[in-house]
User: Fold this.
Amino acid sequence: MDFVTLQETAQLYPLLIFMILAAIVAVETKDLLSSIIAVGAAGLGLSVAFLILKAPDLAITQLVVEILCLILLIRATIKRDIPSLNRGTDYARLISALIFVLVFLYFGYFALKGLPPFGKPYLNVSQTYLNEGLKRTGAANLVAAVILDFRGYDTFGEATVLFTAVIGVIVVLRKIGRIKK
Amino acid sequence: MKEPEQGMTLIVKVITRLTVGFILLFGIYIVLHGHISPGGGFAGGVIVALSFIHLILAYGGKFAFKKLNQTKASFLENIGAIMFFTIALLGIIGGFFFLNFLKKGEPFHLASAGIIPFCNIAICLKVGAGLFLIFVALTLFKMEKK
Assistant:
């Protein structure tokens, strides 16, 4: 049984190519605003890709976080002067990057051959979640059942990471405590 | 360009006044229905935070801080973290960490799935207040310095 139909594949591949192109534009363009907008285009493409792969939870989260990140990036960076990194083409850097990409592709080819086919994981625990999730947790949205009941401990760790990140940002950027007497 | 503290033009302010309540309401809907429909605490929390960021962008920081200032946001974030941890700890009474100790209820009803809706609310408070604080820290702290 195929988990991704032919029609979905036909929708998915142009989207992936679009995202790759947007990412290249985001890296290569000189204008900061264009770069941020290209990052946003790649993120919105990822959101639609999640929707095609039947993951609406992830699609909603990706869309919302992408909008927040765009606003943050534009507000936080656009008025500041960024030193230009345009130093002309350095051939040694280009060649070393190409060599690294080739080595990565060579080893990645063998690594990817060992992966299970798309949508068919080796672990069988997911089938148990699908069969018994509704009965054991009572949540109709199975994603919520997994992240907050079966895997609640992982979600707790993730929430702790976010909490620590917020505390770090506030501590670094606050004004209180920096005043010299 | 205008001073960022004063907000945007009248058109933006009027439209914001009309829409910001709906954005907040939609975020709360996404959170409360997290166990029935796609969404959940994280996405809903970000939408709630976005509604307040919308206020900051349109009206400027001074007006928005009357609704939700930095102290209140830190308080809400801590409440969310403590609530999530307390729910997890309460499971120990029944057996183990993160036990779903409440009644499961009928599927597809709002009052179902035991502790999952409460976890969603806790995550919403934490994520929403946390991302709001990051936004405030990254944008407004810098402007105050000038």
